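We emphasize that the prediction below concerns an isolated chain of 314 residues; any contacts that depend on oligomerization or on bound cofactors are therefore not represented. The input was used exactly as deposited, without trimming of termini.
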Amino acid sequence: MPAASPTGHAHIVGSLAFRNPIVLASGTAGFGRELDDVMDLSALGGLSTKAVSVEPRKGNRPLRVSEFAGGMINAIGLANPGLAAVRDEFLPWLPTHHPGTRVFVNVVGNSVEDFETVVSGLDAVPGVDAFELNVSCPNVKAGGLEFGADREMLDALVRAVRACTTRPLFVKLSPTLGPSLVATAECAVRAGATGLTLVNTMPGLVIDTANRRPRIGFGSGGISGPALLPIGLLATWRVSRALPGVPIVGLGGVSTADDAVQYLLAGAQLVGVGTAALRDPRAPERIARGVAAWCARHDVRDLSTIVGTLEWPA
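Result of the prediction step, given as a token string:
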């Protein structure tokens, strides 16, 4: 049974209305159609698509994904069919089959021009509600430094993309920024970002001891799953306090409704579900229903009244 709005009316985030705050994280939802036979996308607030680059990308060699006790490690390599195929074949499907499920298009590139090309190429596609910039990508023209690791580069990137679209623009930041995360978030918003996605995966290594080799083909990879929950919560709380009113998609380690409510209390307006959906495609629907049940138990009629209400110890 589809999960309605937790409070019986639309959940407003910036200029967009969502049926509930649960969205599928980029890289775990494909472009929606891939999940249609295992998940009711109409039960969710939205999804962030697989990363889109200008040209198709084959991605890294296998194995690309491996589980461990605290979650999952992956190194997909941003495999995707490329701008033209996404525009013509993949994006048109969702709004005709699940109207009202919001679509964030995740964008990657090796230069500012790459990001501009993808956003400009998809800006007029019906059903695209917002863009999400993956700034963990290396800027090849700057010697491979990640866009998100240098605030001057990030400023230039966000300003350039902002000029290409009037749609909401979210910037997805890495937890590795540590103490500079807040300053980086402030930089992105000053440059024109509508909101932020916090956080991306954490770099790590898992070893196959029998073969004395990394578990995945690329070697190291991104850590996601339950181990990331406290990191994502702290990042969300810190940034939300520094930038009150700026929409945040809280992401990392969400596998239960209680996890999702924690992100809302920490300051997120939307909550992303990733690894949990890969393990169990029905998990996002259960989480959405669980948030609705929590709201009913606590007489919460408007989600905005609990966002950012974490009481910090004196």
